[in-house]
Amino acid sequence: MNEIGPREAPERSTSVCILGEGRWGRAAGAILTENGHTTFFVHHTLTAWPRRFELLCLAIPVQHIRETLRRLPAPAVPVLSLGKGLEIRTGFRVTEIVRDVWGTDRLAALSGPNFAAEIQQGLPAATVAASQDEALAARVQQLFHNRRFRVYRSSDLAGVEIGGALKNVYGIAGGLCTGLELGENASASLLTRCLAEMTRLGLRLGGRAETFAGLSGLGDLILTARSRQSRNFLLGYHLARGISLKEALARIGSVVEGVPTAASVRDNLAVADIKKPVADEIYRILFEGKAIRRSMLDLLEREAAPENG
Ligand SMILES: NC(=O)c1ccc[n+]([C@@H]2O[C@H](COP(=O)([O-])OP(=O)(O)OC[C@H]3O[C@@H](n4cnc5c(N)ncnc54)[C@H](O)[C@@H]3O)[C@@H](O)[C@H]2O)c1
Ligand SMILES: O=P(O)(O)OC[C@H](O)CO
C-alpha cells in the first residue's frame, strides 16, 4: 500500500535508537524509516551505546525493562515507550520504570490498536503519542505520522499507558469468552463491562476518562479482546479449550503481557476498593487455578447493579 505512505521526506531526519528487535520494535522502525528517519536496533544485552541518537524507543517486554536499563548509562535524549504492561512488584508503567532507573523526565508513550504484522504489511492504522510534555508528544507524533499510520497526540501519559496495559488483561477475558463459545452477545457485553472497569481503574491511577474512550483504551480493547491475532486473546482461548497455562504460553511463544499485568493489578496497585470483577477473575484463573466456568458463573451470578455504579 505504498500509495498511502508518506507524502514527502521530513524536513529533518532524526536518528532513533530502538532497544528490542521483536515484532513491534521492527514494525515501529519500519514506519520511521518510511518517514525518512534513521533507525538502528540495539540488543537488550548491550552495556554501552554504540553511537549517538536523538530518541530512544523501548520495545522489550515490560518485565525485562528494569534489568535492561540498569546495564546501560542513561542517555541524554527523550525515551519513548512502545511497551504495554505494568511491572510486577511495583505496578509501574513503562515510563515510571524509566524514571525510576535513569531519572529521565523526558518521557513519552506510543499506544493504540496496532498489530505489528498489519503495520508491516502496510495496512492503515491509528495510534496515540502521549507525553506530559506537549512539545515531546508533538515531536513523536510528527516522527511517526504518515498517511497510513495516523498518530494523534495526548498529554494524558498515565491514561494512555494504563489503557495499553489493562487491555491485555481484558484481552485474555475476550479469548476465554470466545473459547467457551458464549456467543457474540456475551462478547460485546463483556467488552463493554471491561471498558467500564478499565475506566474506573484508570481514573484512580491518574488517567482521564476521555482517554479510555479513545484509541489507546477502547480502540485497543476492541482489537485485543476480539482478534485471534492477539497473543492475550489466544491465551484466553487456549485456556478455555482446556490447555494448561504453561502449554498455552509455550504455543504462543512470545510475550503475553496480560499475565504479569494481571498480577500487578491485583498485588501492586492501590485499587483494592475499586470494583474490578473481570480482572479479579482473570487473576484467579491464572494464578490460583480457579476453574474457568466457575469464574464465568461467579461473574454472571453477582447481584444486579446500576450500569454506572
Ligand atoms: N507485537 C505487537 O503487535 C505489539 C504492538 C504494540 C505493542 N506491543 C508491545 O511491545 C512490547 C514488545 O512486544 P513484541 O511483540 O515486540 O515482543 P517480541 O516477543 O516480538 O519481542 C520482544 C523483544 O524483546 C527483547 N527481549 C527478549 N528477551 C529479553 C530479555 N530477557 N530482556 C530484555 N529484552 C528481551 C528481544 O529484542 C525481543 O525480540 C510488549 O510490551 C507488547 O505489548 C506489541
Ligand atoms: O498480541 P497482543 O495481545 O500483545 O497485542 C498486540 C498489540 O498490543 C495490539 O495493539
Gist of the model:
It is an enzyme of class 1 (oxidoreductase). This protein has 2 domains: 15-155, NAD(P)-binding Rossmann-like Domain (Rossmann fold); 165-300, N-(1-d-carboxylethyl)-l-norvaline Dehydrogenase, domain 2 (Orthogonal Bundle).
Description:
- Keywords: Cytoplasm, Lipid biosynthesis, Lipid metabolism, NAD, NADP, Nucleotide-binding, Oxidoreductase, Phospholipid biosynthesis, Phospholipid metabolism.
- This protein is an alpha/beta fold and 309 residues long.
- It contains 14 helices and 7 strands.
- The protein folds into 2 domains: 141 residues, NAD(P)-binding Rossmann-like Domain (Rossmann fold, 3-Layer(aba) Sandwich); 136 residues, N-(1-d-carboxylethyl)-l-norvaline Dehydrogenase, domain 2 (Orthogonal Bundle), CATH 1.10.1040.10.
- The mean pLDDT is 96.
- The radius of gyration is 19 Å and the shape is globular.
- The chain starts with 14 loop residues before the first strand and ends in a 9-residue tail after the last helix.
- Helix content is 49%, strand content 11%.
- Bound molecules: nicotinamide-adenine-dinucleotide and SN-glycerol-3-phosphate (G3P).
Largest sheet: 7 strands, mixed
CATH class of the largest domain: Alpha Beta
Mean pLDDT: 96
Q: Figure out the total of helices.
A: 14
Question: How many domains make up the 3D coordinates?
Answer: 2
Order of helices and strands: EHEEHEHEHEHEHHHHHHHHH
- Shape category: globular
The share of residues in helices is: 40-55%
Oligomer state equals single chain
CATH architecture of the largest domain: 3-Layer(aba) Sandwich
Strand order of the largest sheet: 2-1-3-4-5-6-7
Q: Low-confidence parts, pLDDT < 50 over ≥5 residues?
A: none
Chemical compounds bound to the protein: nicotinamide-adenine-dinucleotide, SN-glycerol-3-phosphate
Global structural class = alpha/beta
What gyration radius follows from the Cα positions, in whole Å? 19 Å
Question: Which topology of the largest domain does CATH recognise?
Answer: Rossmann fold
CATH superfamily membership of the largest domain, which one? Answer: NAD(P)-binding Rossmann-like Domain
Distance from first to last alpha carbon = 46 Å
